[in-house]
Design goal:
- By secondary structure, this protein is an alpha+beta fold.
- The protein has a single domain, classed as 3-Layer(aba) Sandwich (Trna Endonuclease, Chain: A, domain 1).
- About 35% of the residues lie in helices and about 20% in strands.
- The chain has seven helices and eight strands.
- The chain has helices spanning about 25-35, 40-50, 85-95, 110-115, 120-125, 145-155, 160; strands spanning about 1-5, 55-60, 70, 70-75, 75-85, 105-110, 125-130, 140.
- Strands 1, 2, 3, 4, 5, 6, 7 and 8 form an eight-stranded mixed sheet that branches.
- A hairpin with a 6-residue loop joins strand 7 and strand 8.
C-alpha cells in the first residue's frame, strides 16, 4: 500500500488548481501517434514503454488490510483502473470525487510482472482487462493478452518492425 496523497504542489486547496491536469507524458504521445488498430509498430512501442514502467498504480478500495484495485464497467466489461504514475491515479480519484483535493489517497503500486503473473486470476474473476489512464489517454489491454504482450515486447524490435 502506498500513500499517494501529497498534492503535487503540497497545497490541499479546494479549487480546481488543487487538482491540476497531469502534464502530457511520452505514453500520451505514443497513444496519440497510433494510427489505428492495425498500427502494430505503434502498439508495440506503447506496450514496450508501459510494460517497462517500474510500477503500475491502482486506486485502492475496500477496508484497510483488504484493499483491492478499483474497477469500473467500461463498454459492459469490468476493467481494473490502472495508472502510469501516482499523480494520474490521484488526479482521477479527485476528478471522480472519490477523495477531496486535500484527502489521503490509498494506492496500490505493483510491478508490471506482478500484475501479469495474476492475469489468469483476473480472467477467472471476470475482469476483462486493465484500462490505463482512463481520464487522459485511455488505452487498455485484455487480461488474456497481458502475458502474451508482455512476452512479445520483451523481445528486441526487429529490423522490419523499426523501419
Amino acid at each position: 500500500m502506498t500513500d499517494a496523497s501529497a498534492a503535487p504542489d503540497g497545497d490541499p486547496a479546494t479549487s480546481d488548481s488543487a487538482n491540476p491536469h497531469p502534464p502530457e507524458s511520452d505514453i500520451d504521445r505514443l497513444v496519440g501517434a497510433i494510427s489505428g488498430e492495425d498500427d502494430q509498430v505503434g502498439m508495440a512501442a506503447l506496450w514496450r514503454v508501459t510494460m517497462g514502467l517500474e510500477q503500475w498504480w491502482f486506486i485502492a478500495v475496500g477496508e484497510p488490510g483488504e484493499e483491492s484495485p478499483a474497477a469500473a464497467e467500461i463498454d459492459d466489461q469490468l476493467m481494473l483502473l490502472a495508472f502510469t504514475d501516482s499523480e494520474r491515479a490521484r488526479h482521477f480519484a479527485v476528478q471522480q470525487e472519490m477523495i477531496g483535493p486535500g484527502e489521503h489517497l490509498s494506492a496500490i503500486a505493483l510491478r508490471p510482472d506482478e500484475v501479469i503473473e495474476t492475469a489468469a486470476d483476473y480472467e477467472a474473476a471476470d475482469i476483462a482487462g486493465l484500462m490505463f489512464d482512463a481520464h487522459i489517454s485511455g488505452y487498455f489491454i485484455s487480461s488474456a493478452q497481458l502475458p502474451v504482450v508482455h512476452e512479445a515486447v520483451k523481445q528486441p524490435p526487429t529490423a522490419s518492425s523499426t523501419g
